[in-house]
Amino acid sequence: MTIVYVLAHFDDEYCALPLIRRARAEGREQRFVHVVDYRNPKMALRRRRETEAFLAGQGVPASAVTHLGARTGWFDGELHRHARPAYEALKAAVPGPIERVVTPAWEGGHPDHDICAAMGVKLAAERGGAPVDQVCLYQGKDLPWIFYRASSPLTENGPAHEMRLTAREWSAWLAAVGAFPSQLKAWSGLLPGMAMTFARQGGFRYQSLDPQRIGERPHQGGLLYERMFSVPYPLVRAAVDALAADGKAPWTTRRP
């Protein structure tokens, strides 16, 4: 039995580090699938190597890391255009029974993250109903322009599970961002936001992902990816609905 992480981008796994460490301590098998492609092949290779090195430090071998989107043209920011073939490839890449699925949160922060959440929920349902955990990356509920909250669970996603970390564990986690030198510009904004969230919450929080949530808008009001990436929610909604067209998806879309 395997814990499968369905992730959009290399470095998304950073936000799930406490879960990765807990699974390692419990002797769980873990598999990481990164779904999107990158327009620059050299950058794609560099980012993959950064992720593999980061995960190797957590006891995860490179053989457990799959770049599903390599050379597919499912480019970063455009996964909603390729959700169906990406899902079929995901099923083929992850054979056998699944213990648990971990995805980015259904939170309206990045369109690729929401598509991966839907793919993970569908995969879990088709493999015997494995539970799905969602890890918050960033979302902009009730905030203007491109402002966002990092690692801050949406109340719409239900109660949060809390993991208390020691000061040493916090320090090691913050320092581990250095494993991604190609993305330090992006993390220069995200990491302070994460630190502020954790200081306020007092611990790392993640949530179970109810399959029916995939049928709902992540939250009311404008979504961050609508403002920041100019991707309208109806495009993401259409891609998610297309995944459900075979009748096997465990959600029912609720129209406003």
What does this protein structure show overall?
With 256 residues, this protein is α/β, with parallel strands linked by helices. It has a single domain, classed as Rossmann fold (3-Layer(aba) Sandwich). The chain has eight helices and nine strands. It has helices at residues 17-25, 41-56, 83-93, 111-126, 167-175, 184-201, 224-228, 233-243; strands at residues 2-7, 29-34, 65-67, 98-104, 132-135, 138-139, 149-150, 160-163, 204-208. The strands form two sheets. Strands 3-2-1-4-5-9-8 form a seven-stranded mixed beta sheet, sandwiched between helices. The longest helix has 18 residues, at 184-201. The chain is globular, with a radius of gyration of 17 Å.
Instruction: Provide the low-confidence segments as ranges.
Output: none
CATH architecture identity:
3-Layer(aba) Sandwich
| Total count of helical runs of at least 4 residues | 8
What top-tier CATH class fits best?
Answer: Alpha Beta
Query: Can you list the strand order of the major beta sheet?
Result: 3-2-1-4-5-9-8
The CATH topology corresponds to: Rossmann fold
Could you describe the largest sheet, including whether it forms a barrel?
A: 7 strands, mixed
Identify the CATH homologous superfamily: LmbE-like
Q: On the 0-100 scale, what is the average pLDDT?
A: 96
- Count of extended strands: 9
Bin the helical content: 25-40%
Gross morphology = globular
Structural class, by secondary structure, is alpha/beta
Q: How large, in whole angstroms, is the Cα Rg?
A: 17 Å
Q: For the terminal residues, how far apart are their CA atoms?
A: 39 Å
Note the run of SSEs as H and E: EHEHEHEHEEEEHHEHH
Taken as a percent bin, the fraction of beta residues is: 15-25%
Q: Number of domains in the coordinates?
A: 1
